[in-house]
Amino acid sequence: MRTILKHFIINTVSLYLASLVISGIIFAEGTYSILLAGVVLTLTTIIIKPIINILLLPINLITFGFFRWAGFTVSLYLVTLIVPGFKLMDFAFKGFSSYWFSIPPITIAGILAFIAYSFFISIVASALYWIFK
């Protein structure tokens, strides 16, 4: 139960942080949508993602794990289907500029947007898992 709660908190916080950085993640009903999306993402990550990873195991073995992102992308797509107040629009990164480097603004649409969202959210979640070991 404790690990499920940890997954829920990290998934919810990573969704929220991603929505702050990337314009295109919409929580129509506010906090309720964020919490419901976190619950559904946690359940799909625990239940559906291992099934997708097993189905894609031959491709993962051939590509040395390059297609591990596909399980999280399917989970994120299921969250958008199940949670009515959670929408993913076009992936629109506003860009980032600092003294040392600059990342230009990027806009991606369609299935590539889901892949980009899942990549970004999984990076944030991995960082949070690393922090809260």
Question: Would you mind describing this structure in some detail?
Answer:
The protein has 133 residues and is of the alpha+beta class. The protein has one domain (2-131). Helix content is 65%, strand content 16%. A 3-stranded antiparallel β-sheet has the order 1-2-5. A two-stranded antiparallel ribbon has the order 3-4. Helix 4 crosses helix 5. It is globular. The two termini are 16 Å apart. The relative contact order is 0.17. The model has no long low-confidence stretch (mean pLDDT 89). This is Phage holin family protein. The chain crosses the membrane at residues 7-28, 34-59, 66-86, 106-132.
Descriptors for this entry?
single chain, 133 residues, two-stranded antiparallel ribbon, 16% strand, membrane
